[in-house]
Write a structure and sequence with these properties.
InterPro entries: Ribosomal_eL32, Ribosomal_eL32_arc, Ribosomal_eL32_sf. Pfam families: Ribosomal_L32e. With 119 residues, the protein is α/β, with parallel strands linked by helices. The chain contains two helices and three strands; from the N terminus they run βαβαβ. The protein has two domains: 42 residues, no CATH class; 46 residues, no CATH class. Helices cover 16% and strands 10% of the residues. A three-stranded parallel beta sheet has the order 1-2-3.
Length: 119
């Protein structure tokens, strides 16, 4: 069965107030706290503030864009516990090339999708 890819809703690129004015501030978002801040008061023509309403829906939160649940696999036992319908494996970077090839063959037999084949 083929999963449908996830389409997450678009959201604005939240940047810190006056990030363009002072280089030392950086772009990483901080909530405006000033008494007279136009952005804090949601005045027109000001960039959007981060809010709970922009959060990803619970049904797709934490899923890989392919629609599968991303599971880190460190050994063969972890690989065999995966559910091919809902889970996709990501082979740990600590696994060597020889064992990774063996794991990829076993995953193919079990019908499990591997997200980082890399070969």
């Amino acid at each position: 069965m083929k999963k449908t890819p996830i389409k997450k809703p678009k959201k604005p690129n939240f940047k810190r107030q006056e990030w363009f004015r002072y280089k030392k501030l950086g772009e990483s978002y901080r909530k405006p706290k000033g008494k007279t801040s136009k952005r804090r008061r949601y005045e027109a023509r000001k960039p959007a503030m981060a809010a709970i309403g922009y959060r990803t829906p619970r049904t797709i939160r934490g899923l890989h864009p392919s629609g599968y649940r991303d599971v880190l696999v460190c050994n063969m036992a972890d690989l065999e516990q995966l559910d091919p319908e809902n889970d996709a494996g990501r082979i740990s970077s600590k696994i060597g090339k020889r064992k990774k090839e063996i794991m990829l063959e076993r995953a193919k037999e079990l019908g499990i999708k591997i997200l980082n084949k890399g070969l």
